[in-house]
Write a structure and sequence with these properties.
There is one protein chain. The chain contains eight helices and seven strands, in the order H-H-E-E-H-E-E-H-E-H-E-H-E-H-H. It has 217 residues and is of the alpha+beta class. The chain has two domains: 61 residues, no CATH class; 120 residues, Alpha-Beta Plaits. The strands form two sheets. Strands 1, 2, 5 and 7 form a four-stranded mixed sheet that branches. Helix 7 crosses helix 8. The termini are far apart. The structure holds iron/sulfur cluster (2 copies). One iron/sulfur cluster binds next to helix 4. The site of one iron/sulfur cluster has 12 residues, from helix 3.
């Protein structure tokens, strides 16, 4: 038998072994092997026996925090209960987006006609988005972040795959739920920045007080 023939037989043997082991392990470990997070994690270990694939869509593999798919826009909930959209419509994300799939329209004040720091429309063509995450990296206001939701398949591209402002907006609580470590890091950075600013303010005030005292003496 040729070398490739032996290789095929060896491969089929491994497949058969896994097939048989699936039943023996299932008999031993019962239902906990399927449709539970614990079961999925156990089947994903290197020493698992039998079937190790995840039975998608009935089962879903747990996603790592850094997983990224389509971006979404973050809003905070204000004291009045209204949405406080973080995006200032600065346009940086649209500029850095490699395939140019972001379109933003800046809101204008109805009375004065002056541009405001918020979008009236924000659109992403999710079929063109290549999930690179650059928009989220460059946004100076933590206003756009990468989502975990990958189940967006649809039959009507124009109707469902041009995400608009309403579709893109998600609360900060959702952002924190899918990326707790990143949010914690960003909050720590903010605290550190604020502490530095406060120290600089205090130093400036002390210097001014000293100068005033010297001038008055
Ligand atoms: S999402 Fe961020 S980078 Fe993009 S326009 Fe809004 S504030 Fe600017
Ligand atoms: S993830 Fe990349 S491709 Fe998608 S909108 Fe952001 S910058 Fe553009």
């Amino acid at each position: 038998m040729s070398g490739s023939g032996k290789g095929i037989l060896k491969g089929l043997g491994i497949t058969l072994k896994h097939f048989i082991e699936t039943y023996t392990v299932d008999r031993k470990e019962g239902k906990n092997r399927y449709f539970t997070e614990e079961g999925i994690l156990s089947r994903r270990t290197p020493d698992t026996k039998g079937v190790f694939t995840v039975q998608y869509p009935e089962e879903k593999a747990p996603l790592p925090e850094a997983f990224r798919y389509i971006p979404f826009l973050v809003y905070d909930v204000g004291e009045d209960g209204n949405r406080d959209i973080r995006c200032t419509s600065c346009g940086i994300c649209a500029k850095v987006c490699p395939p140019q799939c972001i379109w933003i329209t800046r809101r204008t004040d109805e009375e004065t006609g002056k541009p405001m720091k918020e979008p009236s429309q924000f659109m992403i063509d999710v079929d063109i988005c290549m999930n690179c995450g650059l928009c989220a990296e460059y946004c100076p206001f933590e206003a756009i972040r990468m989502d975990h939701d990958y189940e967006i398949a649809n039959v009507d591209r124009m109707k469902h795959h041009i995400f608009d402002l309403e579709k893109l907006l998600k609360p900060a609580s959702y952002y924190k739920a899918i990326r707790p470590v990143q949010v914690e890091r960003e909050e720590a950075e903010k605290r550190e920045k604020e502490a530095k600013k406060e120290a600089a303010r205090a130093a400036a005030a002390a210097a001014k007080a000293k100068k005033d005292a010297e001038n008055n003496s």
